[in-house]
Input
Amino acid sequence: MRSIRVGIDGRAFTSPAAGVRRYVTELVPALRASRDALELIALGGAAESIPAGMPHVPEGWHPPTNLGWTAVGLPLAARRAAVDLIHAPAYTAPLLAAVPTVLTIHDVSYERHPEWYPYRRDWLRRAFYRRSARTAAHILTDSEFSRAEIAAAYDISPESITVAPLGVSGRFVRPDAVAELPAGISAPFLLHVGDLHERRNLNMAVKALLDARTRLAVPLSLVLAGIDRGIGDQLAAIATGAGLPQAVISLGAVTEPTLHALYRSAAALVYPSRYEGFGLPVLEAMACGTPVIASRAASIPEVVGDAGILLDPNEPGPWADAIVKVVTDPVLPARLRIDGRARAALFTWERTAHITLEVYRRVIEANA
Output
């Protein structure tokens, strides 16, 4: 079988979206480690962000915007690299290119719930995302939930969308380094990992925490590890209004060693999101042996299976009950740790890479 040349958008390695960065930094090494005849080339992006040893085509001229890069710079870089296919790993793809494009769409929350994204120019982003989806040769996504949502949002046949579930890095199972907990944080605490965004439903989590604290003999807190996208003050105000300002601790973005320390020390990960394309923090937490309390919504049940506690995201009472039980029950956390690790072991980046490579080959053959 002949070698194929695939160009991947190098800007994804420095994406402002942590999930996109995790996706490409884990998928690319898994693809490069495969035994298949594959040449993977980074198209554009900062040279220092590209994995060592990976061929890199620098950016040429293009209009000085992200849209200009995707529409003009990326296809020109692909032509200079003489690739057989472009992989656009984050929602947007060239509208015109000499070779086919495989596009990864992680979720379509911005299309299905535009009320969560009240930005002045969000309509333009949504229009570009829609056009990218409809012109791509094939779409990759992270879950069956997202596959159905993409098909419905863009009126695309589900046959043109392939699910490649994400994996969990071995670093979460056997970390190279685990930092000390950040100053001011001590057990017991609950953990949430991910940007603080309206769709993450964290107001409900704070209310459930405050309810649980009334029944616990320990000063349980909620630690938030992620960039504040505009709701941090609301969360702090809820805790302050209850006379417990110390109950919510917002760390912002954290390093990976610190993230490992938080996962391994938390009483549970709480993940009450109303909408996820996958929910990678849930998988990482299970791999670390952290009990998971999460929403029975969107893609999350696909990831958690029977290895965590799944609840209605709109009912804080059962969340408070589950928090109390995880903190006080001597048996439940041990079972959740065992089940979570076993569940997480089913999700590997090698599998993601295998599915992705099969899509590459099908698209190239169909366009030969």
User: Anything to note?
Assistant: Residues 4-167+348-366 form a domain with the Rossmann fold fold (CATH 3.40.50.2000).
